Every structure is written in C-alpha cells, then in structure tokens.
Amino acid sequence: MLKLLRRSVQARAVATTVALSGVLITALGGFLSFSIGNGLFEARLNQILAESESAVIDVQNTFAASSVNDEVALQTLLNSVVPKLEATGVADSRRVALLRTPGQAGIQLLQSPISSGLDTQLIGQNFRSEVRNSAGRVLYQSIQLSFVEDGITRVSPGIVVGSPVEIPLAGKYELYLVFDLSSEQQTLDFVQQTLLIGGLALIFIIGGVSYVVTSWLVRPVKIAAEVSEEIADGALDVRLLEKGEDVIAVLARSFNKMADSLQRQITKLASVSKMQQRFVSDVSHELRTPLTTIKLAGDLLFEARDTLDPTLRRSAELLHGQIVRFEVLLNDLLEISRYDAGAVRAELEIHDLNQVVGMAIASIDPLAKNRGSSIEVTAPNDEILAEFDSRRIERLLRNLLANAIEHGEGKPIRVEVGVNDHAVAVSVSDSGIGMTKAQLDRVFDRFWRADPARKRTSGGTGLGLAISLEDTMLHGGMLDVWARPEAGASFRLTLPKVQGTEILESPLSLPSDDDEGAKA
Amino acid sequence: MNPKILVIDDDNALREMVGIVLSSAGFTPEYCPDGDQALAKFKAFEPDLVLLDVMLPGKDGIAVCREIRNIAGTPIIMLTAKTETTDIVLGLEAGADDYIVKPFEPSVLTARIKARLRPISTLEEAVNIGPLTLDVVGHQVLKNGNQISLTPLEFNLLLTLAQKPKQVFTREMLLEKVWGYHYKADTRLVNVHVQRLRSKIEEDPDNPKIVTTVRGIGYRAG
User: Fold this and answer.
1) What is the dihedral of CA A103, A106, A109, A115, to 10 degrees?
2) Domain that includes residue A84, residue range
3) Which of the ends of chain A has fewer CB neighbours closer than 10 A, N or C?
4) Neighbours of A151 (CB within 10 A)
C-alpha cells in the first residue's frame, strides 16, 4: 500500500482527497448532528416548560379554589391531580409525582400520589432542594430514564420539571413532572445515522470522482513517460499526440519540440561520428600512400648507405629511423581514432596467457638486451587460459615491457603471471626512476610523458598507454599502476577469464597500496 | 627472361618508386594509373603478376581484381592502405592471392612477389584425391575427366593438402607452405581461399567432401 502511494501520483492524489474530505465531512456531520440535537432538545424543553407551568398553575388553582377541609376529601383531590397530568403515550410520556417537602412541622397526613412506573430516586435531592428554594418558579433537570422493555434495560434521556405547591391543610408539597425524550432521541439517532451513511457515501463518491479526474489528468503524463522511455530506447521518431489548447496540449507540444531537437542533435552527432570514421579511413589512405613512397625511397637509400659519403650516410640512417617512428605514430593515431569512433571490435578467442606473454617478451628482447635490462618471469607452469584478443593483448604487454625498459635504468624487469577462479593477470615491474603521485594521475593521458625534458630514446609515441587502457577496457579488464619516485613502477593488467564477467579481485597484488600508489 | 609485373596504382610517385624497387630486384615493371584501363593493359602486357591498389579512380581495385580473375589465374597481390577487416576480406573474395598493407618495406614487397612466382616443387607428376586428379606438370585439375580451372595459388593449396591426404594442416602451416609466410600472418587468407577452392571443386561447397574443416585446428583433404 505504502509502495503504491510512493509510486503512483494518482494513488497519492486520491488518498489525499479522500482523507481531507473525510475530515471535513466528519466535522460538518458532527456540527450538524450537534445543532440538530440541540434544536430538538430546546424545542421540546420549551414545550415541556410551558406545559409544566400551566400544570402547576392548574394544580395550584385547583387546591386554592377547593374548599375541602377534611382529610379524605383532600386525599381524593390530591389523587385526582396525578392522573389528570399524566400522559402515557409512546411518543409523549409524562409521569407525575407530588411529593411532600420534608422537614415540615406536623406529620404527613396525606399519601403522596406518584405515577406508576416512576422511580422517585430519579428526582435527586439536590434538585429537590433547588425546587424548594425556587420561590414558585418552574425548574428542570436532565436525567437518564431507564426502563425495561422485552427483558432489556433501555436508557433514554428525560427531563424532570419541578415546582413547589402549597396545599391547604397539608402544607408544602413539590410537584414533579418527568418527561420522556426517547422520541426526540430516536429522531436524533435517525438523523445521525442518515448523516453517517450520507457522509460515508459522499467520501466514497469523492474518492471515485477524484480517481476518475486524476486518471484523466495523469493519463497524458503516463503516455509522456512511456514515450520518453521509447525515445530513450532509441525510437527517436516517436511523438506525443497534440490535441487542444490546454496545459496538457502545451506539455505535448513542448515534449515533441524537445524530442525534435534531441533527434536533430543525435542525428547530427551520428553523422559527425560517421564523418569522423570516414575521415580516419581517408587519412589512413591519404597518408599511407605517400608514406609508402617515402619508406621505399628511404629504405633504398638506407640499403645503399655504405656507398654514400659520411654526411649522406648519416642522413640516410636518420631518415630511415624517423620513417619507422612516423609509421608507428600514424598507426597509433589511427588506432586511437578507431577507438574514439567506436569502430573497434575485439577478436576474442581462448588463448594461453603464458604463451602471449612469451611472445611479447621475445619480440621486445632485442630492446632489453640493448638497454642491458634482464627480464625475469614468474609464471605458473600450467596453461593460463582466458578469452581475449591475442593481437591486442600482446601489443599491450609489449608496450608495458617497452615502458619498463625505457624507465628501468637497466635494472632487472620482473614479469609475473597469475590466475584465480575468474580472472587472469600479468604485472610488469621495473626498479627504475618511478613516478610521483602527480605524474601517476596523468600516466594514461595521450601524448603525456613523465618527464618532457627527458630524451626520447626508444621512440615511443606517447599514445602507448592510452591505447593500452582502451584495449583493457575493450576486454572489460583493469589496468592498474603503482609507482614511487626512485623505486620503480609496476603495471598490472587483469582480464576476466570469460568475457562479460566481472572481475572481483586481481590474482596478483601490486607492490603496496599505500598513499604513494594510485589506481587507474 | 625477367618476370613481368603490372603495377596498377593511381599515385604517380608510388608507382614510379615501386617500379624502381622492382627493377632493382630484377623484375620488369609496367604501369597502369587507373582502373578503367587496367584490363586492356593486362591483356596487352600479359604480366606474370599484378600489384593492384584497392582504391583507384574510376573502377576500384576490387572490381579490377574480379575482371582479371574472370579471364586469368595470374597471381594478384593487393596493395591496401586499409587494415579494416571488411576491405581485406572483400579483396581476397574478389580473387586476390595475397595482400600487402601500406606502408611496406622494399624487402617485403619483393619477398611476397617471389613467393607468388615460385614454381611448385614436387617430385610427383600426378596426385589423386577423391574424384580429382591433379596433373602437376600440366597444372591441371581433372574431375571425372572434365578440366577445372584453378588459379596457381588454388592449385598449390589443393596440391599441398592432397599430397598428404588425411593429414590435418593448421592455417599457419598452410600460410607457410602455400603463401611463403615464415611468421605469423593473417589466417583469413587461408579461410577465404579454401572457400574459393571449395566453390570450384566441391559438389556442395557448404557441405564439403574433398577439403574438410577440422574444427579448431585447420583443414585436411580426403
């Protein structure tokens, strides 16, 4: 239920409407029932008081006008008073008691006439003393009447009205009239019941109406949400229906305008991306053809360098070297452009990582020998099988090795191969000049060099690590680096055994994860 | 007599430079600057081998390759600036025997040309495989008495497989024996040419009986 409220605007709106109207209807119903009850009571009371007053005057006059002087006649007269005043209708029951005021001199000679079924306990002593001191006025008090009907004790509201009466010869008496208000109570009950049923029905109707209204309001928003979802999923030409002039039509129009502009931008970007790929392809062809001529010419000169005089010979050698470098640079640029254009697809197959590491080391060995670096390999004896593009991974490892040799200052280079349940890893570590934290942060940036003032000895392009990182990402792997100034650097490549699975932990650990190290 | 090489390339400097390299390696070059004249030049010159640039003005290299293949089995080496998979496969499917990616070194160019011109060396005069008879001396393949026309490369590929029936050749072995590569090369060369060969000799190329694939390893004949 809470979840529904959280997720659905409509449910929230309906619930709020129902709750608020519930509170208001309850308050209104309470007020109505209270004032109706009050009105009924007041009307009845006024009637009762009027009746009572006339009854009292009647009784008083009866006694005053009588000229009885013996007890028997007085008792008879007294007894006639009560039935005269009584009424026993269901709707309008009235019972009477004529009670002698206590504490008078002389004994009570006469029997107090009391209506049958009237419990004089209902007339409280406090009320009686108030009546005695009322100086002839008619007083009233609300009481609870209880009577037994069909074996069930029922309680109904009532009013007792009292007034002192002076009876010749007999002394002070009090006349009490007890009125039953159960018919008023019944009316009030009925009114309250009607109000309750009406209120509940009203709340229910309001809930229904608000559901209909909100669903009518929410529907366009729902449709807009669905259309947005479709657009997000790539259906760029889906639009909302624009109908009418209201705020919903404005929403639809703005939404469609936004979708149009989005579609234009995306189409433009797509064409730019296509142009970019086209450009890469064109550059590839246009640069490669002249480079081929240059390379062929340079190579012929280089082959014939022994027949040239020393100046020309050195020139031929420099030309040859730089053509090679230019070619590598061009290849790296094209490779990174291909990545930027998203045009790279890995040729995935199951390979033995040990074998690929071996091939990379074999191809870099001449450079290592040249720089006096030995390469020490620690690897498991078994095949380390994983799914990867061997050409790219070999190139990546070659690049890491070339970096280690270049910055390793002739110290031994350590290569470690590791494997666990879900991943394989290779780390390449040197003990050379290392890097600072600031340098580490930029190590994968394009054309960035650890030390611009350093001579470029091995002719790297400055794109090697950027491409290595792209190659790693292509495989869903990780390329981590640790380095410390004057302590060397360590690169660790981790690849998932099966493409598309997540690497939980690299099989190899980097030298130390203290604050001098950094991850990429 | 020096082998004749037809160089079809639109870039004047490169054409001339390739010519210089070829001449100094003992070949006789002839040039053609665009695709439209290529077939006429080919017929007039009757080269022993064609160097063909993929991107040409007019007719492109792929179309020229297909035209030449229609009339002759002369070895064709594509010169390509593109390393994208589709371009290379398209060229090979059009009938090119081999390809060289620009920029290349003179030694690579001459080595690849020599590998393609090297005569098949075998002591046997005829080899039988399935319904086929390979006439090594006459460079002919007979199937049930009917001659099938294969390019020299296809003939060489089939002969290599047929000389050792049942033996499985890996793609790398075939690259070395047939194409003359002594280092790791593009195994797509083998795949594409096996497909071309099958389309000529098999009853149902999709369900080959003569040259069969050994999954994960390579190919074998018989």
Assistant:
1) -10
2) 2-193
3) N
4) 5
How many whole angstroms separate alpha carbon A433 and alpha carbon A454?
12
Q: Where are the domains of chain B?
A: 4-117, 126-221
Tell me how far apart the alpha carbons of residues B6 and B33 are, in angstroms, rounded to a whole number: 11
Buried b (16+ CB within 10 A) or exposed e, B123-155: eeeebebeebbbebeeeebbeeeeeeebbbbbb
Mutation to test the A interface, candidates B82, B102, B112, B186, most A Cβ within 10 Å: B102
Q: Return the amino acid letter for A509.
A: S
- Beta-carbon separation of A295 and B55 below 8 A: no
On whether residue A235 sits in a domain, the answer given is no
**In a mutagenesis test of the B interface, which of A284, A296, A301, A333 is the best target, namely the one with the most B β-carbons within 10 Å?**
A296
CA distance B211 to B65: 25
CB contact (8 A) between residue B106 and residue A290: no
The phi and psi torsions of A479 (rounded to 5 degrees) equal -125, 105
| Last residue within a domain, chosen from A147, A172, A193 | A193
Where helices occur in A137-246 by DSSP H, the ranges are: 182-232
Nearest CA in chain A to B100: A292
A304 plus A396 within the same structural domain: no
Contact A288 B103 (CB under 8 A): yes
Query: CA-based Rg of chain A, rounded to a whole angstrom?
Result: 54
Q: How far apart are CA A187 and CA A181, in angstroms?
A: 10
> Which value does ipTM take for this structure?
0.84
For position A170, which CATH number holds? 3.30.450
pLDDT digits (tens, 9 = 90+) for B72-124: 889 999 998 766 667 788 888 899 999 998 889 899 999 999 999 988 777 77
Structure tokens belonging to residue B167: 């033996």
Residue A189 sits in the same domain as residue A306: no
**Residue type at position B210:** I
Residues A458-516: tens digit of each pLDDT: 556 788 889 999 999 999 999 999 988 888 899 999 999 988 888 888 888 887 655 44
- Whether A219 is covered by a domain: the verdict is no
Q: Using CB atoms within 10 Å of the CB of residue A283, give its burial: 0 to 12 exposed, 13 to 18 middle, 19+ buried.
A: middle
Q: Do B188 and B181 meet the contact criterion of CB atoms below 8 Å apart? A: no
Query: Which residues are CB-neighbours of A455 under 8 A, at least 6 positions away?
Result: none
| CATH dotted code for B4-117 | 3.40.50.2300
Q: Whole-angstrom Cα distance, residue B151 to residue B192?
A: 14
Pair A336, A354 in one domain: no
Q: Write out residues 22-51 of B within 8 Å (CB-CB) of A.
A: 24
Concatenated DSSP letters of A357-413: HHHHHHHHHHHHHHHT--EEEE--SS--EEEE-HHHHHHHHHHHHHHHHHHTTT--E
For the domain B126-221, what is the CATH code?
Answer: 1.10.10.10
Choose the weakest-confidence range: A53-67, A69-83, B190-204: A69-83
Are the C-beta atoms of B50 and B75 separated by less than 8 Å?
A: yes
Tell me how long chain A is.
Answer: 520
User: How many domains is chain A partitioned into structurally?
Assistant: 3
Whether residue A148 is contained in a domain is answered as: yes
CA B169 from centre of chain: 19
**CB A390 within 8 Å of CB A349:** yes
Q: Is the pLDDT of residue B59 over 50?
A: yes
Residue A265 covered by a domain: yes
